[in-house]
Amino acid sequence: MSSIQIIVGSMLGGTEYVAEACEEVFQNHNHTIDLHLMPKFSTIIDQSFQDDPSEKVIWLVCTSTHGAGEYPDNLKAFADDLLNTDQDLSTVNFLTIAVGDSSYDTFCKAGKDITKLLISKGCKEINSILTLDMSQEIDPEDLAQQWIETNMDRI
Questions:
Q1: Among 78, 76, 74, which residue's Cα sits nearest to residue 59?
Q2: Fewer CB within 10 Å of terminal CB in the chain, N or C?
Q3: Which CATH number is 78's domain given?
């Protein structure tokens, strides 16, 4: 079993639906989950390492991109704290789901940036980032759930 922190970056709420769909998959596999719609770095750190130390620590970051490639407002402080931390994050395994529109040259930039930042802090990427293009006719929640299921053997 894993301790899973779902970290959401969203301006308009669409990414929250993707995160909640992923939460459902994790629940079906009996994992311990904390969903962070207003992610606070210190809280996520505390919840990641407070439980059984033998539990695998998984962070799932679900984020959109805002403006000219920036993090959504609710994710900025988390990203800043992550950038500035000296905390040993080498035991954190993570996945990233980025939601965006490919008609913009900053398509899924926030997701790509947070992925690079997590790797730079020693976190281990479970699988390459999933980018969901909202300019296509897709069901982002269903695609995210399928992707989580395909990675479940690594979680």
A1: 78
A2: N
A3: 3.40.50.360
